[in-house]
Amino acid sequence: MLDINQLRNELDLVVERLATRGYTFNAAEFAALEAERKTLQTSTQDLQAKRNSVSKQIGIAKSKGEDVAPILAEVENLKGELGAAETALATLQDKLNTLLMGAPNLPDASVPVGKDEAENVEVLRWGTPRSFDFAVKDHVDLGAPLGLDFETGTKLSGSRFSALRGPIARLHRALAQFMLNTHTNEHGYEEVYTPYLVNAASMTGTGQLPKFEEDLFKVSRPDAEPLYLIPTAEVPVTNFVRDEILKAEQLPLKFAAHTPCFRSEAGSYGRDVRGMIRQHQFDKVEMVQIVHPETSFAALEELTGHAERILQLLELPYRKMALCTGDMGFGSTKTYDLEVWLPAQNTYREISSCSNMGAFQARRMQARFKNEAGKNELVHTLNGSGLAVGRTLVAVLENYQNVDGSITVPTVLRSYLGGLEQLV
RNA sequence: GGAGAGGUGGCAGAGUGGUCGAAUGUACCUGACUCGAAAUCAGGCGUAGGUGCAAGCCUACCGUGGGUUCGAAUCCCACCCUCUCCGCCA
């Protein structure tokens, strides 16, 4: 959520910067609602003050045994008038809130301006794509004999689901464990385990609701509020600090979690239909940082580096992209995507996305800390994949394939697989 | 699934229709006393919003949302959550 004070004071600037993301903020509506709010709020509060003082008088009069009928007659109209004012004000504030909740975050000044992914800026390339002296297979063909089973996934659940068996299942588990171990042992993250179903308040806190409900799997319950399957561990982990006031010395908080992620993929019909690039369910190791506002951009560099480290240790070639204003996610001030080399697609594909959300989520969540002046101040939140496990599995299969269809196990994973050097 | 209890300030805990934004204790901050500390004493100490140059004034907030009333922490309804006992269960 944007800072309403900034909207009041620097409306033109906000509008201009949101426009670089391709978002048209309805400034005229906002200004009109704000003006109306001001007068309506003042008049409502005047009426409330009047009611309070008259009611107080009635109480005093009654306690003295005086007749209160004249005073009651005096306030006869007040009740209806006040009720109408309060209703009107609530309606107005709902509208303002809707406007605010629907607006994306302001991009940082360092973010390249552009309208879509074509204008993202490559920051660096790491590693050299291997040259093959045989015809490369894609992960679907490579995985099939090793236990990558789309037919069963489809039978059990439908399209965009897969089942893993034997060596592939084991490699998948090894990848997740390797990532989580690296972040907790070497990068200073606290391992967390979280619910995979969360309430609407949590989804609203991180920004999935109210605007992106169609992207989520919703679980309705007859006698309780609905729950939502998490689309990323960012949701439960970031919400750890919802409605909390942290001590300054607790910051930064660094959490890492391995969870499944569930996405409806509404609107992506026909995209990546083959293979496990785009699934309704996939595993991901996620990093989340809760930091002091002054350090959030440094933290973004650090966190992105942690994700890069996984790719480097796995010796997978990748490139780092600075997303342009038009391609960034809803709540982000700045995002780096890491794209891994996929030989079969002869291209780089997203495997991690690392974002500094600034105060955007913290404001929705009311996640604060006591600052140096003793004031409650919003924290900044960051998150990044470190990494998407399913896509890493794809990358390992394709990059480490041999002419006979076997897969060489990356060195760092061997200890997780009982020393195994090849998947056959 | 059945039965019951309960959600009040950082924490504990009073308050069951009227000068209650809320007693009291505790924690915390400031000052006094002290060589210093402890103890003691005095004062301060919630959040959000409106308005004002400012001092200040005003409004809202006692789990959440509705309702009754001139007036609600207090009464009514719904929901959320926590705890206890029984049953079932990985």
What can you tell me about this protein's structure?
It is a single chain. Helices cover 38% and strands 21% of the residues. It has 424 residues and is an alpha+beta fold. Strands 1-11-12-13-16-10-9-4 form an eight-stranded mixed sheet. Strand 12 and strand 13 form a beta hairpin. The longest helix is centred in the first third of the chain and has 37 residues, at 27-63. It is elongated. The model has no long low-confidence stretch (mean pLDDT 92). It binds one RNA strand of 90 nucleotides through helix 3 and helix 4.
Outline:
The protein is of the alpha+beta class and 424 residues long. It contains 13 helices and 18 strands.
Notable features of this structure?
single chain, 424 residues, alpha+beta, eight-stranded mixed β-sheet, three-stranded antiparallel β-sheet, 13 helices, 18 strands, 38% helix, RNA-binding
List the helices and strands and how they pair.
Elements: H1 4-9, H2 11-19, H3 27-63, H4 69-74, H5 78-101, E1 121-126, H6 139-143, E2 148-149, H7 150-156, E3 163-164, H8 166-186, E4 190-191, E5 197-198, H9 200-206, E6 218-221, E7 224-229, H10 234-238, E8 245-247, E9 253-262, E10 281-291, H11 296-313, E11 318-322, E12 334-342, E13 347-356, H12 360-365, E14 368-370, E15 376-378, E16 380-388, H13 389-399, E17 407-408, E18 422-423
Parallel strand pairs: 4-9, 8-14
Antiparallel strand pairs: 1-11, 2-3, 5-7, 6-7, 9-10, 10-16, 11-12, 12-13, 13-16, 14-15, 17-18
The structure holds one RNA strand of 90 nucleotides.
